[in-house]
Write a structure and sequence with these properties.
The protein has 12 helices and no strands. It is mainly α.
């Protein structure tokens, strides 16, 4: 595994120590507040599938993504933050270092696998990206981001029919995703033209 300690220190400083630790009195105050009833992930997916409004569906999708991102572990959250900073700086090897640690420490954390698949995709490492997408989808078959990533890889690889099926799977989960709708139309037209 690549050495990440120097990068971790630099990223911790760039994020600010305040993100790494929270005062105990704020934590205790938040824990004593009654938790508002929030919809389950299943409820959110039900709402996403039923939404006929693109903007409302996007808001529901954002809530789902927040649920996926919430690891329940400050260590994992911090590694994910560092990976995000590295990705934004296009330091993909560094991002992979952090994400390798995430999936090792928390192999059931869906977003760790998905984020690592994204980094591999950005590096044009499609085989590694597909492997992480597969792991993501085994943990969460409704992960519309992973499904869309799979569809893009298949499309870029010239595999139009499997790409079309992957985009259709996206729309089965998230019917109002505009990009997937457009790609289904484009691929269906291309495949129909090839059949003539």
């Amino acid at each position: 595994m690549r050495n990440v300690l120097p990068c971790a220190v630099a990223l911790l400083l760039s994020l600010g120590i305040a993100h790494a630790a929270e005062p105990l009195n704020e934590t205790a105050a938040r824990q004593s507040e009654p938790a508002a009833a929030k919809p389950s992930l299943d409820d959110l997916f039900h709402d996403l599938k039923r939404s006929g409004n693109e903007a409302a569906a996007a808001r529901i999708a954002e809530r789902i993504q927040r649920e996926w991102t919430s690891s329940g572990s400050r260590s994992i959250d911090l590694l994910m933050q560092w990976a995000a900073v590295a990705m934004q700086a296009r330091k993909f090897d560094t991002a992979l270092d952090f994400l390798d640690q995430v999936v090792t420490l928390s192999p059931d954390y869906v977003e760790g696998w998905n984020r690592r698949a994204t980094v591999h995709f950005l590096m044009d490492n499609y085989a590694l990206s597909m492997s992480d997408i597969d792991r993501t989808l085994r943990l969460e078959p409704r992960h519309f981001g992973a499904l869309a990533g799979m569809a893009q890889i298949l499309q870029r690889s010239g595999r139009k029919e499997p790409a079309l099926k992957a985009y259709e799977r996206v729309l089965d989960v998230y019917p109002m995703m505009r990009n997937a709708q457009e790609q289904v139309g484009t691929l269906a037209d291309e495949l129909a033209g090839e059949g003539i």
